[in-house]
Amino acid sequence: FQPKVLAGKRLLITAGPTFEPIDPVRGITNHSSGKMGFAMARAAAEAGAQVTLVAGPVHLPTPRGVTRYNVTTAQQMHDLVLPQAASHDVFIATAAVADWRPATLNEHKIKKDGKKAAPTFELTENPDILAAVAALQPPPYCVGFAAESENLLEHARAKLVRKRLPLIVGNLGPATFGRDDNTLLVVDADSHHALPAGGGSADKLALARELMQDIAKRLRV
Ligand code: C5P
């Protein structure tokens, strides 16, 4: 049983990877499984929130009671999230958004041609969805995620400041993509603590439930 600590709150959550097409059959993506974002959506709904989930390409069932939109690219995710963000109390960005996309989309499949050199691609930067939402006036309560391979606390703090966030959650576990368990580091402007609170690691749903309790407390103060 989960206490309904988020009753009456509206939460918007991004999850999964994005896929940036190169041509009709190829693209740039990453190994995000979407599991953490979907666990966050489920935990938020269990805690009584109205939840909107914007998911990149993943094969995961929609948690009960959650309104889900599917997108492919970072630009689509941005264009769906931005107009909705102002009507939500909390925005949680768990998606592993591709930082760059091919500058031009080839309408037809790029063919291999033994005589020609291998193709080269120019990349262009994708919009930073989280930074754009955090810049709204007034912004919803924004929670970012950070996947770093080193100096997690330092990088998470830097991200907090750069994107103007009240809270960021770092992945302490080594290879978390696709795994069911993890250890998180919850970082705000002047403190940090690890989850699960008892130490060790926990499955993503248990972590998401703890995080929702934590976020609910922060909304009340
Ligand atoms: O800057 P970096 O990608 O490390 O930041 C990670 C955080 O920012 C995550 O919460 C991610 O969902 C969000 N993000 C975003 N849009 C981007 C890049 C990252 O919302 N284009």
Question: Describe it for me?
Answer:
This protein is α/β, with parallel strands linked by helices. 26% of the residues lie in helices and 25% in strands. The protein has 5 helices and 14 strands. The protein has helices spanning 35-46, 74-85, 129-134, 152-162, 204-220; strands at residues 10-15, 20-23, 26-28, 50-55, 67-70, 90-93, 100-102, 123-125, 141-146, 167-171, 181-182, 184-187, 192-195, 202-203. It has an 8-stranded mixed sheet with strand order 5-4-1-6-9-10-12-13, with helices on both faces. A hairpin with a 2-residue loop joins strand 2 (20-23) and strand 3 (26-28). Helix 1 packs across helix 5 (204-220). The structure holds cytidine-5'-monophosphate. Residues 14, 74, 93-95, 97, 126, 128-130, 144-146, 159 line the site of cytidine-5'-monophosphate. Pathway: Cofactor biosynthesis; coenzyme A biosynthesis; CoA from (R)-pantothenate: step 3/5; Cofactor biosynthesis; coenzyme A biosynthesis; CoA from (R)-pantothenate: step 2/5. GO terms for molecular function: FMN binding; metal ion binding; phosphopantothenate--cysteine ligase activity; phosphopantothenoylcysteine decarboxylase activity. Residues 11-221 are annotated as: Phosphopantothenate--cysteine ligase.
Q: Strand order within the widest sheet?
A: 5-4-1-6-9-10-12-13
In percent terms, what proportion of residues is strand?
Answer: 25-35%
Reading the helices and strands in chain order gives EEEHEEHEEEHEHEEEEEH
Rough shape? globular
> Mean pLDDT, nearest integer?
94
Separation, N- and C-terminal Cα atoms: 24 Å
Report the uncertain regions.
none
Radius of gyration (Å): 18 Å
Bound molecules: cytidine-5'-monophosphate
Number of strands: 14
DSSP summary: helix tally: 5
